[in-house]
Design a protein that fits this description.
GO terms for molecular function: maltose binding. By secondary structure, this protein is α/β, with parallel strands linked by helices. The chain has two domains: 175 residues, Periplasmic binding protein-like II (D-Maltodextrin-Binding Protein, domain 2, 3-Layer(aba) Sandwich), CATH 3.40.190; 204 residues, Periplasmic binding protein-like II (D-Maltodextrin-Binding Protein, domain 2, 3-Layer(aba) Sandwich). The chain is built from 20 helices and twelve strands. Strands 1, 2, 3, 6, 7, 8, 9 and 12 form an eight-stranded mixed sheet that branches. Strands 4-5 form a two-stranded antiparallel sheet. A hairpin with a 5-residue loop joins strand 10 and strand 11. The N and C termini lie far apart (68 Å).
Length: 414
């Protein structure tokens, strides 16, 4: 064989290998999740890959980088096949035309009417469905039963209104030794929608209209909730670090054993049981001013980006994640709230505190807005600024007026 013949064969072999590599890459189903979901996504993908011919490649992206990275991918046309994203971003992505319409398939699911109402609502635009629930989180009020006992309070009788929270916080703070009755991350917009807005909802108020087009911050329930927090701040029931906490100490202060009450998520139950068995704790729904309950129903939705090369497999994976076995084995047994209401007992059967979290999530809500990041998540935005100005500054009326104006400016912008 002469040199040119060998070169031709080598070139042909190289092209075949390259074509095979391209085919393998094209056959690989890609799945993007944010860091917050990595603990559940990794075993899920491993289980899928061990039982299915179509293999899924998982990419975990830092929470704060997720939307920017996906936006870049969508602009370039190089999107993942499957996307798990914070449910509050779904209206924005759907409006931008970046998600695949799955309406007919979603309606045909045998368990469609059991799926998280908050997830399904935020994934619905103009009557069309663009995502399904993936993971769930419900916000609750966490309290230290040990401090309740020391303060002479009944540890089995958590507060059911704001006056009781204030009264209990004062008694716990009076224990001294650096103990405080209450805590919240005051410089974190996302934290406040998760743990402060439920007080407003429980009292019959809201921060946005149902269609997400108009601010309702000027309603009395919002002002009353801000004054409730301001009273606890100004009377010394909350530690000074609250004012500048951007979420870094969202749960950490409670883990010291020196905080009586803090708003948090259901994840705290497993965390405390695993890592802080010395803390005797209880949870309860956020109460309204004179009763009622509220919760933020959070978590991630799962969707097929427009341009997915493997949309059929992507949808198979989405529905597999929602199946009885997967929801029970990979979500409920690992302490994650299932996104199907009929599977709640598998989650909470061993701990009544889990049932409180499940019920709070199931009845919870999340604001619908395609401007959510600018309104709420931006720590320099109008929602975070409202809490800063009202709670720490004390001029609640002025803070509400400014925030109402800024909300509506953002909502009316293109």
């Amino acid at each position: 064989m002469n040199f040119s013949g060998r070169a031709t064969l080598q070139l042909g072999a190289s092209l075949l290998m390259l074509a095979s590599a391209w085919a393998q890459a094209d056959d690989n189903v890609t799945f993007w999740v944010r860091m917050q979901d990595s603990a559940v996504a990794q075993p899920l993908v491993k289980a899928w890959n061990g039982s299915h011919k179509e293999q899924i490649s998982l990419t975990v992206i830092p929470n704060d980088d997720f939307i920017t990275k996906f936006g870049t991918a969508a602009a370039s046309g190089n999107v993942p096949d499957i996307l798990a994203v914070d449910l509050i971003y779904v209206p924005q992505l759907a409006k931008a035309g970046q998600l695949t319409d799955i309406t007919d398939k979603a309606k045909a699911l045998p368990f469609a009417n059991t799926l998280s109402k908050a997830h399904m609502r935020l994934a619905n635009a103009n009557g069309r469905q663009y995502a399904l629930p993936f993971s769930a989180e419900g916000s609750v009020l966490l309290y230290n039963k040990g401090l309740y006992k020391k303060a002479g309070l009944d540890p089995n009788n958590p507060p059911k209104d704001w006056a009781t929270i204030e009264a209990n916080a004062k008694k716990i703070t009076a224990l001294g030794g650096g103990v405080k009755g209450f805590y919240f991350s005051g410089a974190c917009g996302g934290c406040q929608i998760f743990t402060f807005a439920p007080y407003i909802w429980a009292s019959g108020g809201d921060i946005l209209s149902a269609d997400g087009k108009t601010a309702t911050l000027d309603k009395p329930q919002v002002k009353d909730a801000l004054e409730f927090y301001h009273r606890m701040w100004s009377s010394g029931q909350i530690s000074a670090g609250s004012k500048t906490d951007n979420g870094q100490n969202f749960i950490n202060t409670f883990l010291t054993g020196k905080v009586g009450m803090v708003g948090t998520g259901a994840f705290a139950i497993g965390l405390l049981k695993r890592e802080h068995p010395e803390i005797d704790f209880g949870i309860t729904p956020f109460p309204g001013e004179k009763g009622g309950t509220g919760s933020f129903a959070g978590g991630d939705s799962i969707a097929i980006p427009k341009g997915s090369k493997h949309a059929d497999v992507a949808y198979q994976f989405m529905t597999w994640c929602l199946s009885d076995a997967v929801q029970t084995e990979y979500f409920a047994k690992n302490g994650s709230i299932p996104v199907r209401s009929d599977l709640g007992p598998a989650y909470y059967k061993d701990d009544p505190r889990l049932k409180i979290a499940f019920d709070a999530f199931s009845a919870g809500q999340a604001p619908y807005s395609d401007k959510f990041p600018q309104l709420i998540n931006d720590n320099n935005g109008p929602w975070a600024t409202l809490v800063q100005d009202a709670v720490y500054g004390g001029d609640v009326n002025a803070a509400v007026k400014k925030a109402q104006t800024r909300f509506n400016e953002i909502l009316s912008s293109k």
